[in-house]
Amino acid sequence: EDFGKVKFNGAEADQDADSNRVDSRLAKVVDEDRASEHLEPQVSAEKIVSNQSFVVNPMVQKLVDDEERWGYDKVPEVNLTELSVMSGPEDIVEQQLGYKKYEFNALLSDRIGPRRKIPDSRHQLCTEQTYADVLPSASIIICYFNELPSVLIRMVNSIIDRTPKELVTEILLVDDQSDADKDAEPEVQNYAAEHWPSSKIRFLRTENNEGLIRAKMFGAKNSVGEVLVFLDSHCEVNENWLPPLLDRIRESPSKVVCPIIDIINSDTFQYVTSPVCTGGFNWALTFIWDYPPRSFFNDPVNYIKPLKSATMAGGLFAINRNFFYEIGQYDNGMDVWGAENVEISFRLWMCGGELEIIPCSRVGHIFRRRRPYGTGVDSMGKNSLRTALVWMDEYKEKFYEQRPYLRMKKDYGDISEMVSLREKLQCKSFQWYLENIYPKMLPGNSPTPDVVTQTTKVLSKFLIRLNGTTLCLTGETTSGRIVKGARVFLEPCRQGRREQTWRFTEKKELRPMGSSMLCLDSLKGLRLFKCHMQGAHQTWLTSSGKFFNAASGKCLTGRDEIASLAETEFCAISPQWVLDPIVTP
Ligand code: UD2
Ligand code: MN
């Protein structure tokens, strides 16, 4: 298969920019994988949930009504480079605090303010597309937990500025009972009172933190639009994003449609155009992106044509309200985060629906490396297990092979309701789904082996010394060995120390001597994780003495202090490194 350059917007995307895109997406995949890998073995602290105990926030009545206000003709252009300038230690401290709270550059988001221009990322051909004059109107449901107010405000403004008013029945802001110190609701409500039409914007709140799956159902239940449009709470919608989605549902109400998810860089807030791709999954039930081969775009119409997709990423999609209820909305027994997107995708296809990506609809989304919630609860494991048991028939063995520890897990809750839903809807078999929707996963068909090979050519070997010091990058050892998850410290350089000898591979990884399957990884701080050969947080580019990791947008950093921790930070402030050759005695 050809995963090379993707021709985009008429121009050939340059390879680096292109691989960055791919990396950010892979980053997400790996993140999910890690999240569950990391959380799996822990005892799941089952949350006590009262399913129907939601309340509508009475605050909603307070807002002034101003039907007239919609859209803004002077959306400002912002200069991200200027806004990113740190003018002193206070700024840096504030920025660090923002990262801690939200896992993205909150300081920069605040500086960008309530609205900004973003590049129109659609293919040119999209501008020539026409849609029906009369389209169904939509309730836009945005669930959030611990979201930054400026991100939420800018998101709603992007909808107001780039969506025909008559297509929006309402925008629902569902606060899933955020933590008190991260509750965006009061600030957003203040802004709303002054700037948004109260007839269209509604504030709701779940009584308990329900997790995003039940929060979405709560939003749906409290909405009235003919179509439901779900969006994550850190998006900016692009030009004319909604009509292409609604038109498709108008044609066929059993079609569930997703925009292409563009990338808002979590450090720089740069809006990056994503290549046209569809959703898939692997046997661990991790969502993955599938990139069509380059030849697919020889016919330019394929840049704009709706594409069948085996799965959806989960956050951004539109669905006819009645159809949403017909197919049984979500699995109510799923907690916090994860796998509900794969579950609803299986269900859609197997029970008479269709899932499509609509390339002329584009919405930017901030992909975070970590989520500011849910630590200590293995919701991904539990939710995937429920998905496998309800939908995968004999193929659940494949899932267990990838997630063996879940064989033992018994506290996944009651799945009988989902099983009878499957019977009631007379859904097709998983075999049918594989054969007709995702044949690449049929046994014998898989072009990508389940277990990735972890060997790659070593290009060079060196010590990595902090410039102007005698300290070197050193892998943490446990009884003399570097183990998975090891941190990296600065220690006095000494030739011959395996944990200080780094091999630079063809894949641009850094692997310490003696632990050849471990790679320097920027996903969780700076650690050594199993090499996954998928680039992303394990790819290090060297330039003017710095080590840059594109997936995190940061550089390798360390201090001139023995036993201090090496980390990643913004390249503008990161120090330089020297590669000392290995001297063989
Ligand atoms: C992706 C999806 C997300 C969801 C998830 C799997 C996209 C762009 N995002 O992960 O929608 O399908 O995969 O479960 O496809 N939230 C709550 N209550 C909570 C926790 C989170 O309302 O208890 C909100 C959160 O504020 C956000 C949304 O749910 O708006 C999705 O969460 P996320 O952004 O952490 O998920 P993401 O994008 O990593
Ligand atoms: Mn998200």
UniProtKB/TrEMBL annotation:
GO MF terms held by the record: carbohydrate binding; Notch binding; polypeptide N-acetylgalactosaminyltransferase activity
Cofactor or coenzyme needed: Mn(2+)
Topology relative to the membrane: Single-pass type II membrane protein
Keywords, alphabetical: Disulfide bond, Glycoprotein, Glycosyltransferase, Golgi apparatus, Lectin, Manganese, Membrane, Signal-anchor, Transferase, Transmembrane, Transmembrane helix
SMART domains: RICIN
Record-level GO cellular component terms: Golgi membrane
This protein's pathway: Protein modification; protein glycosylation
Biological processes annotated in GO: protein O-linked glycosylation; regulation of Notch signaling pathway
E.C. code: 2.4.1.-
Coiled coil regions in record: none
Root EC class: transferase
Residues of the Ricin B lectin domain: 460-580
SUPFAM superfamilies to which the protein is assigned, alphabetical: Nucleotide-diphospho-sugar transferases, Ricin B-like lectins
Subcellular location: Golgi apparatus membrane
Domain of life: Eukaryota
Family of this protein: Belongs to the glycosyltransferase 2 family. GalNAc-T subfamily.
PANTHER family assigned: N-ACETYLGALACTOSAMINYLTRANSFERASE, POLYPEPTIDE N-ACETYLGALACTOSAMINYLTRANSFERASE
The protein's name: Polypeptide N-acetylgalactosaminyltransferase
